[in-house]
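User: Teach me something about this protein's shape.
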Amino acid sequence: MAATSIPGGESTAPIVTIAEGRATIRLNRPREHNRIEPDDLALLRETFTRIDDDPRVRVLVLTGTGKSFSSGYHIGALVERHATKRDGAEPGSDAFERVVDRLEALRVPTIAALNGGVYGGSTDLALACDFRIGVDGMKLLMPAARLGIVYYPSGIERYVTRLGVAAAKKLFLTAQPIDTDEMLHIGYLDACVPAGELMAKVDALAETLAANAPLALAGLKRAINEIAGGRLDRAALAAARAGCAASEDHAEALKAWGEKRTPLFRGR
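Assistant: First, the predicted structure itself:
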């Protein structure tokens, strides 16, 4: 199910569709390069809760309308916060950080379909997804040093654990853009395709992920993320392993293996 643009390029809040086991969130402010407004954060949080609570949803795709994926969190909101904050108040965008952390912790596998340039906070939004597929000619820019801010903790952690110390330092400290070749080299992108082939590539990956056992995917994803952050909850992992071993899906997998057919998983 490919995302489509709205006639006339109308700017709206993110558009959410859920159908056939797949949720799609499309950032939809093409005239503003899909910048993320403060009011969008509540919608994203509500959508993430809806996805986690609906066992029929097997995968999430996050994408954008137009030529950019996203210019990040609205700089105007940062300016307003700076003008109104009390002395000593922490300057970080805590609400945005919580939304990105919530995306990372989603039960289902997530794919960032990067239809164009990715800038500022949207670089971390995409990094919180499990997979990132980009398009030829796109660029990435993390301008925190130019804006005179120290990024929020979980964002820095994602950069370091997923891209490595050297790449994180280059992107944060130079505040210079990188191209698709370098994004592939440092592991920011899993794949890069011509723009016209993006959704076909994403659809194929989404179908692969959705065909696997949901309970196993959730347990594996959580454990991998926790290990990457140095905070593995061994009790939770043991519970996930025991639950999967006793699940109907595991029994179905063994039966399908013996019958040489594709298993049909139900998430229980």
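Now, about its shape. Residues 38-53 form the longest helix (16 residues). The domain at 7-210 is CATH 3.90.226.10 (2-enoyl-CoA Hydratase; Chain A, domain 1). If you'd like, I can walk through any region in more detail.
User: That's plenty for now, thanks!
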